[in-house]
Design brief:
The termini are far apart. About 70% of the residues lie in helices and about 0% in strands. The protein folds into two domains: about 35 residues, no CATH class; about 35 residues. By secondary structure, it is an all-alpha fold. The protein is elongated.
Length: about 80
């Protein structure tokens, strides 16, 4: 089930939940959250998805680069 398959009133409640949850955090401990509460409430689910996919792909690319570097290093060991 995706957010888009929910009834519109349920989608609205889901969307506003984040704003209500973040708004209840102690302001003294989370001043940045309180300063940006309107922006947090306006985050688009597609933007969250895109950011998550980008993070996974970036982590995978970093891991591949490290592995390739290690393989290249191990093949060159002792040849210098």
């Amino acid at each position: 089930m995706t957010l888009g398959s929910l009834e519109p009133e349920v989608q609205e409640k889901d969307t506003t939940t984040w704003t209500r949850v973040y708004a209840r955090l102690p302001q003294g401990e989370y001043p940045v959250t309180h300063a940006h509460i309107d922006a947090l409430g306006a985050v688009d689910p597609k933007a969250v998805y895109d950011a998550a996919v980008e993070a996974v792909l970036s982590a995978a690319c970093t891991l591949v680069r490290k592995r390739v570097s290690l393989i290249a290093y191990s093949r060159n060991c002792g040849t210098e």
